[in-house]
What does this fold into?
Amino acid sequence: MADDPNKKELRPYEIPEADLQRNPFNPTGNKSLAVHQAAIDITNSPSNAYQQFAVNSLDENGESEMGLLKPSDNPKKPDYDDDWDPYHVDPKHFKSKLKNMARMVHDYLELAGKMGNMTPQNSLITVMSTGTTRGGTEPGGLTYNASIDSMSFWGRMKRKLFSSVNKKFGITTQASLDYTGTHELGHVLNSLLLNPKNADAADDDWEYNITANSMVNTALKNVMPPKEDKKRKRHKKNNAKKKWKRNQLNLSKSNLYKKGYTSRYGETNASEFFAEAFADVYSRGANARPVSIAVVKEYERRRDEMKNRPTFSGLDGITDNDFQADDLLNTSMIAKAPKKPRKKKGK
It folds into this structure.
């Protein structure tokens, strides 16, 4: 099942949109990725699906409280456990998120082992969120709004409302909820670039979007016409109460959504702009916004410069073919809780 090591696979921003339409989960036909996604597909509960995704992603924190399998008395209803899965999550929608996330892990092997547990929640606003890895020193941990993927009437209404409002107002980059996981993994990639030797500095960077701001700023400079770039707004430097905002981009006042550089949500701050760039690239490939492609390339450039630091050294020997099919059905991973609560970023 191994892929040809001599064949160079297209990067996510090089993939023609036509290929994405034919096979959005595996547009390059990667054989090992196909096996991993098939392993997700054959699971019979949300918790098993996430655990399978985590095992495939070399994640030591491969458990979820998303639902334990329990036979249903009604043959027309799928198996679930009311105590663990009160949302009655639709497996199709949940697995679509996981398969997109699996694709991103294969493209960015540094994500391996950095995602942690997934915890369900019921929110009117947030779809998914993630914590920081503090420079790759610990797993981030994901939360997932299970109610939005519910098979209930209200779950279906939530999905329809999200799609219709999103298409009309451009709130997020992608109209499909299938790409919310790639957005969150964009945040995880951002957190891998933080200072691994100083937790306080890494937390400040995460909270105030310092590294994300720098990457987005570089990408915009590379894409924007010089005259337009000079007009971009920044927070006032004399705002003593918020010193962290000095030289930070004021994205909303720069009207970047109206100018077509990001979604409305991407205007929130540089961190969301960064994560939205990955969702854009994974949903549209080579047809993504030029600045989204520039953001992803800037991340790759900085990652490659930092590969010699201790946090990345453990991944140097990992290749796509190290994800062996023989290990795919191993579901004995034990979850580890984060050391202490951290601020989540989500959409």
Remarks:
- The two ends are 36 Å apart (CA to CA).
- Residues 91-107 form the longest helix (17 residues).
